[in-house]
Design a protein that fits this description.
With 484 residues, this protein is mainly α. The chain has 20 helices and no strands. Helix 10 packs parallel to helix 13. The longest helix has 45 residues. The N terminus is likely disordered.
Length: 484
């Protein structure tokens, strides 16, 4: 499989080696074998890593399809005997990128439909999620080939409208999950401090808060020095607005009224949101075109290359985090976590003579359900579920060196997981193609170096501040909704 994907890259050993390694790791068996050497490893995690690697490989292929470089190398390997065209047209550029990402998006859409309603790995359809990696990769590659037989007009409409809408949904989802992470992190630290009166956790909370604020102000100073010269009105406005909103949101988080309705709100959450939004702003000004002499990074070739590599790594990490977070923390989307049971009050159960377990449930399943309820109530840490798996027979090997940790219940919603990946493919396609000057890209196209991408990041920072601000004032504005 790795050799197949690396054929177009034989002329560049370093990239070909990376592609080969990435493709060979696209099976959960390989991921499980590698990670199990580092300690306890869960089969569901291997599956998520495998899908993330497939997305990574697909994104690299998409990036290479922006320019004719890879196709010229492939033609050269055939001693110029073969000329690669798509229905008489060139097989690179906007449409080619949309084709490749549409193929992977279609792959995830079909999996989302086929896996609807899967609750445990005992369901026969669960094998489609966690196994059959060889056939799945073949189907994915077949979809890529198939898309090149679809008329170009379809992808012109798909890329300009449908993919753009999906990309914006993906960005918005990432912002919501970032705010959720900020609240979860602060509440987790506060819970540790309250439960154990731990000076270590108090130091972690205070230190991380100060560190994130320090980094935010440091990035702001750097932006003012290097990217806010005379004539750079866009950069000056973006940096100043970000600084002002950072200060405002920090003051709101410690306002007495907000503290009264939400005692756990504070600077810890606002620090995490601030450093992320400041990073988005810095990324925006450092990735804009240099037509107004406002981006010195473009004029420094070495730094420019480093920024492209760093930006690609951060983009892939963000996509991996967002998809994993969305799949495993369904509560952020208004759905239940992957618990397939409903609570019944003990008084009501006793009054009506009801039982809260199915007659066929085993004692082990009853114990697992009780543990999940305890974890949800906060009386036990989340890793108690993993410990229970280790002590039970349900944690049987999955046949690939890992452990099946989903026999009692899936760790995440399979269909939702693939929908998030579908949106991720739309975001990758939009990021790579929106407002790109294909005539002047050279051998390699810089990812996201357009005013469109810069404004998306700037507006995303503002929206993120808005979402976080609403999460602070919502209990004040809607006290009945939040139990006050």
């Amino acid at each position: 499989m790795g050799a197949l994907l690396s054929l177009p890259l034989l002329a560049v050993p370093s990239i070909g080696t990376l592609m080969t390694f990435g493709a060979s790791c696209c099976g959960a068996a390989t991921c499980s074998a590698v990670c199990s050497a580092c300690g306890k490893f869960q089969s569901s995690m291997a599956t998520r890593i495998a899908y993330a690697l497939i997305l990574l490989v697909n994104s690299i292929i998409s990036w290479l399809m922006l320019t004719p470089w890879a196709l010229k190398k492939l033609e050269r390997l055939t001693l110029d005997y073969m000329t690669i065209t798509c229905q008489g047209k060139q097989c690179y550029g906007f449409v080619a990128v949309q084709r490749v990402n549409f193929a992977l998006g279609l792959f995830h859409f079909l999996l989302a439909v086929l896996l609807l309603g899967v609750k445990t790995s005992k369901d026969g359809r669960a094998g489609l999620q966690n196994g059959y990696w060889g056939p799945k990769i073949i189907v994915w590659l077949a979809f890529i080939v198939m898309t090149f037989f679809i008329p170009e007009a379809f992808f012109q409409v798909w890329g300009k409208y449908f993919a753009l809408i999906g990309a914006m949904m993906f960005v918005l989802l990432g912002l919501i999950l970032l705010v959720d992470l900020a609240h979860t992190w602060a509440e987790y630290c506060l819970q540790k401090i309250e439960d154990y009166d731990s000076r270590a956790w108090r130091g972690v909370l205070i230190g991380s808060t100060l560190g994130m604020y320090t980094m935010s102000f440091a990035m702001t100073i750097v932006m003012y020095i290097f990217f806010a010269n005379s004539g750079c009105a866009m950069n000056q406005a973006a940096i100043t607005v970000n600084l002002l909103v950072l200060l405002i949101i920090s003051m709101i988080s410690v306002h007495p009224t907000v503290q009264e309705y939400n005692p756990q709100a504070g600077l810890a959450q606002s620090a995490m949101v601030s450093i992320y939004c400041t990073y988005l702003t810095m990324s925006a000004v450092s990735m804009e075109p240099d037509d107004h002499q406002c981006n010195p990074l473009i004029r420094a070739r070495g730094t420019r290359t480093a920024s492209i590599v760093l930006g690609a790594i951060i983009t892939m990490l963000t996509i991996a985090y967002t998809t994993t977070r969305a799949a495993t923390q369904g509560i952020a989307l208004g759905s239940n976590k992957s618990h397939n049971y409903s609570k019944v009050d003990s008084e009501d159960a006793a009054e009506h003579g009801m039982v809260d377990q199915q007659p066929s449930s085993s004692r082990r399943e009853m114990r697992a359900e009780a543990l999940r309820a305890a974890v949800e109530a906060g009386s036990l840490p989340a890793n108690a579920l993993d410990d229970d798996d280790d002590d039970s027979d349900d944690g049987v090997p999955d046949g690939h060196g890992g452990k099946d940790d989903e026999r009692a219940g899936t760790q995440y919603n399979y269909s939702l997981f693939h929908i998030i990946f579908l949106l991720a493919t739309m975001w990758v396609a939009t990021l790579l193609t929106q407002n790109i000057d294909f005539e002047n890209t050279g051998d390699f196209a810089a990812v996201g170096r357009t005013y469109w991408a810069s404004w998306v990041k700037i507006c995303s920072a503002w929206v993120c501040y808005g979402i976080f601000g609403w999460s602070l004032v919502a209990p004040v504005v809607l006290p009945d909704r939040f139990g006050h």
